Amino acid sequence: MRGIKGALREAWAIARPYWSSEERWSARALLAVVVLLNLGLVGMNVILTFWNRAFFNSLQDKDYAAFTQLLFLGRHDPEEGYLPGFCIVAALFIIVAVAQIYLRQLLQIRWRRWLTARLTANWLHARAYYRLSLTETGTDNPDQRIADDVPGFVNSTLSLGLGLMSSVVTLVSFVAVLWSLSDAVNVLNLPIPGYLVWVALLYSALGTWLTHLVGRALVPVSFNQQKLEANFRFSLVRVREHAEGIALHHGEAGEERVLGSRFRDVVANWRALMTVTKRLTFFTSAFGQVAIIFPFVVAAPAFFAGRITLGALTQTSSVFGQVQGAFSWFVDSYSAVADWRATVQRLSGFTRAIAAAEAHAAEGPRREVAAGPALVAQDVALSLPDGKPLIQDADLTVQPGEAVVITGASGSGKSTLFRALAGIWPFGRGTVSVPQGTEALFLPQRPYIPEGSLRQAVAYPHDPSEYSEAQLHEALSLAGLDALGQRLDETDNWERRLSGGEQQRLALARALLQKPRWLFLDEATASLDPEAEERLYGLLRERLPGTGIVSIAHRPAVAKFHDRQLRLRDGVLAPA
Ligand SMILES: Nc1ncnc2c1ncn2[C@@H]1O[C@H](COP(=O)(O)OP(=O)(O)OP(=O)(O)O)[C@@H](O)[C@H]1O
């Protein structure tokens, strides 16, 4: 119970912002209409049981006029009052059922749209996505949280909420009807008030309890099935993503073994699922069969004694069915509730992690506007996500047009310093001051190539329309990618299509095109052959004479294109 209370509180925390957002009035109005339509459906079900009674009475009485009236336009009975015809109720039922589902889906997509936009914005805002990728505190797959858990949360919250409401309303209204029918049906001539209600509730309670006993084994087994299927899919995806590595190692047999073992788990669990489902179906179908006849058996003595009509007998049966259906909703929904709780937990963990990342957003070396023309990093001390110090108070000043190379052993923290200079490393302190209005471009070892056309990839993150055709061609040609000049508008998975060296050339073309005032290169030419590396460094210096360059490089040949050389050793940045 406490678990449910906690889940409700967490769910409310996720849901509340939408229901009090700028869309609140349309959302609330839509929800109100959906609720009313739901209640309308329950109401029509009640009317249908009375209709059912009058209809069977007309059959028993061989009253053809009543029979046709009840089929079409309806009938006024001095005792029963007005009852609409079946055609009218059925038409109304169809319209309400369609409108209810349509508007509910509309509400679902609107809520999902709002929540997705908000979560995506928060995730991207203040670089929470980057901090989360560095620390990974229980937020394993943000993509899954946004793409799967948001619709899962919205859909199950609405369906469980509306299901609960209509089951309660159905239960209450049909119990009232059943109570009114109970007067004429009693045991051994002893009048027991609400006799049928007690029988129905006992029968439903017994049935749902037994269903629960038999069916509860299904929850962990089907949960496991989902997990095992996901593991199998994950292994398949790994083969696709690491196709080259596997092919180079001739690792097919090993992969087949892993895939086989994962799939054997899927099959074994499926067998368990089959066994539980078989047991459950035995029980539920037996119970379902008994349920058809049980209310007739209970009410039949009153019918044969002439105390109730055939219509009252069939009405008793259908009301009984409704009470039982509404009652069993509570038990049938427990696996849906368990899924919903898991979704709520994942989403609220994700939102908490984003909030924590946002709260720490101001941490790490500060970015400031420099007073002079130089780029200045001052007292930059960096640590790892776990707080372990990596670099002690580093200072670096780069004048416009000056080129500095930083070397250091592998793992000494060069890339981390590069991230700090870019202003994205969130662990540490110090300041990085960049002259006002100047642009800095950071090229890591593996350049980021966005989805889309090659034109967009070269201009990234700028709009390609900012550059002329000639400028784009020239930049590609200088970087040694002449052939790609003809394919500027081709949309492809360029990251996979281009070789490692070509991707680095593309990144250098970006620098030659965008002519930033500050250029940072972290092993950005490491995949090029030494001649190409030298030629491109020469070009950068020649074509971007006013640009301050900071390179991180291992190869000594690169050093000659720089004015100064620094070395990072034991956390200290000092002249080499
Ligand atoms: N997100 C992280 N979480 C934990 N440790 C990290 C993280 N990022 C980097 N490190 C650690 O920080 C140290 C410095 O890493 P960094 O990538 O800056 O080294 P580097 O000098 O650029 O090395 P290389 O020359 O091999 O590229 C390494 O020991 C690395 O394992």
Automatic annotation (TrEMBL):
Major localisation: membrane
Domain of life: Bacteria
CDD domains in UniProt: ABCD_peroxisomal_ALDP
Keywords linked to the UniProt accession: ATP-binding, Membrane, Nucleotide-binding, Transmembrane, Transmembrane helix, Transport
Molecular-function annotations in GO: ATP binding
Classification of source organism: Bacteria, Pseudomonadati, Pseudomonadota, Alphaproteobacteria, Acetobacterales
Localization, UniProt: Cell membrane
Bilayer topology: Multi-pass membrane protein
TM region(s), chain numbering: 29-51, 82-103, 160-182, 194-219, 280-304
Species: Roseomonas elaeocarpi
Annotated ranges, domain ABC transmembrane type-1: 32-339
Domain ABC transporter: 375-576
Database matches in PROSITE patterns: ABC_TM1F, ABC_TRANSPORTER_1, ABC_TRANSPORTER_2
Protein name according to UniProt: ABC transporter ATP-binding protein/permease
